[in-house]
Amino acid sequence: MIPQVIWPNDMWMHTLAKARELDAKDVLKNKRESFALPNNKIYLDGNSLGPASYAAQTAGQSVINAQWQTDLITSWNVHDWIRLPQIVGAQIAPIIGAQEDCVIACDSISINLYKLLHSALNLQPDRHVVMTQKGNFPTDGYIAQGLMAHRSGVCLVYVDEKDIIAQLDESIAVLMLTHVNYKTGYMLDMRQITQAAHELGILVIWDLAHSAGAVELSLDNDEVDFAVGCGYKYLNGGPGAPAFVYVNSRYHSQLRQPLSGWMGHARAFAFEQDYVPADGINSLLCGTPNIISMAVLKGALTIFNDVNIADIRQKSLGLSAFMVSVIQQHPVLQAFELITDMDDAKRGSQIALAHPDAYSICQAWIEQGVIADFRAPNILRVGFAPLYISYCDVLQAVDRLAYIMQHKTYQAKQYQIRNSVT
Ligand SMILES: Cc1ncc(COP(=O)(O)O)c(C=O)c1O
Q1: Is 42 helix (H, G, I), strand (E, B) or coil?
Q2: How far is CA 37 from CA 128, 221, 309, 365, in A?
Q3: How far apart are CA 391 and CA 320, in angstroms?
């Protein structure tokens, strides 16, 4: 690997040797072969959209070309399409440290948050405050705001995410938090916050969009109440993949979610006039599941069958720390401000680099074959998906970033044009 810039103090050879050594020792290194990644691209955006895997592609082809084509509507029974939400939920369960019957795959995070927030508020009739963190992913707040338009008296308060426990009190019905901040990568202490909330009678809903498949989670052991997460980031389920919901078994008999569609009915095919919720987690379903997406996600999840999440986490921390250490060694890269807290217990699987020209730098980096993304107003966001990223990838990506900064190629006109998706 030949560098594009000159690295100070001959550090390139030494760092390259280190990267190669770490890659050689990597217990996950063979997993990269499971992914249909394009050549000559370094993909640092699996925190936004995971790449295609061969297993996902095969599953997609099979559901369209074999099942749908050949078995038509009988596939609902013959290929068990009707149970895919439960089957996929059971695949996700061990990844998030949950019992199988506490997880179901359905809808999107936004819709699932609506269901859970409504249900959780119903369990807290004497409390009227929903608390969330400042800088939470917008959809979480938007959903809470939308729900409040139909529930008079309930209000939403935003608190600093580094000071959540101190802000808790007995007026709060529900604490709705994103575990790993989408922009900064800051990770909250799930167990500690959940415990502190429970001591004051507060229910907690966790958004695991940036956690599931990337960090170790023990929802059952941590006595989490509710959680949502998505299938398209670290779970590699494809664009718009179904999301998932977790409900602790202690609420299964009390849960009343508001989107009372027929798939969540106790006897969907009895076509009864009145809604009767299904038992347990099944009542979280609403309408007909998107079978094609669900089948692709099911295929993608098989990659996790023989993977230890602790190995993923360890490598993720290693990759992000390695990138930061390389960035710190080139003077041109000091133009970035590292926003991410590098304490292992406080970061997820991404780093955030602030720069006033972050958008155009990101575009120039993509042109150089390194795909990351931009989050307004000034963050270059870099995700580490240990199943297919190597230490050598990270080193090469930083070298290309240094090239862009040294030659200011990001200032070219074409990199200033804002795409609709950043
Ligand atoms: C923390 C978080 N929550 C929710 C979402 C999106 O939710 P939905 O699946 O409804 O699009 C994202 C998308 O990136 C996210 O980062």
Answers
A1: strand
A2: 48, 36, 22, 18
A3: 9
Q: Which residue matches tokens 């200033």? A: 416
Per-residue pLDDT reduced to its tens digit, 248-289: 999 999 999 999 999 999 999 999 999 999 999 999 999 999
Is the preceding peptide bond at 277 cis, omega within 30 degrees of 0?
Answer: no
| Dist. CA 335–CA 361, nearest whole Å | 12
Whole-number Å distance, alpha carbon 304 to ligand 1 midpoint, is 22
413 is catalytic: no
| Predicted pLDDT of residue 420 | 87
- CATH number of this structure's domain 57-304: 3.40.640.10
Question: What does the pLDDT read at residue 203?
Answer: 98
pLDDT in the model for residue 278: 97
Cβ of 62 closer than 6 Å to ligand 1, yes or no, is no
Structure tokens at 144: 């809470």
CA dihedral 137, 143, 144, 145 (to 10 degrees): 100
> What pLDDT score does 152 carry?
87
- Residue nearest atom 6 in ligand 1 by C-alpha distance: 109
Distance CA 198, CA 378 (A): 37
Terminal C-alpha separation, the chain: 30
Which letter does DSSP use for residue 215 in this model? S
Residues 281/89, Cβ–Cβ less than 8 Å? yes
What does each C-alpha distance from 237 to 13, 194, 220, 340 come to in angstroms? 38, 29, 24, 27
Ligand 1 centroid to Cα of residue 212, in Å, is 12
Record the tokens describing residue 164, joined without a space.
Answer: 């959540």
Range 179-203 average pLDDT: 98
Average per-residue pLDDT for the chain: 97
The finding on whether 182 has its CB within 6 A of some atom of ligand 1 is yes
Q: Place 209 in a pLDDT band, splitting at 50, 70 and 90.
A: very high
DSSP 341: -
Please tell us whether the domain made up of 8-34+308-416 is placed in CATH 1.20.1300.10: no
Whether the CB-CB separation of 282 and 86 falls below 8 Å is answered with yes
Token pair for 345: 């217990």
Domain spans of the chain? 8-34+308-416, 57-304
Is the pLDDT at 291 greater than 90? The verdict is yes
Q: Can you tell me the mean pLDDT for 291-316?
A: 98
Q: What Rg value do the Cα atoms of the chain yield, rounded?
A: 22
CB 207 within 8 A of CB 228: yes
Centre of ligand 1 to C-alpha 182, Å, is 9
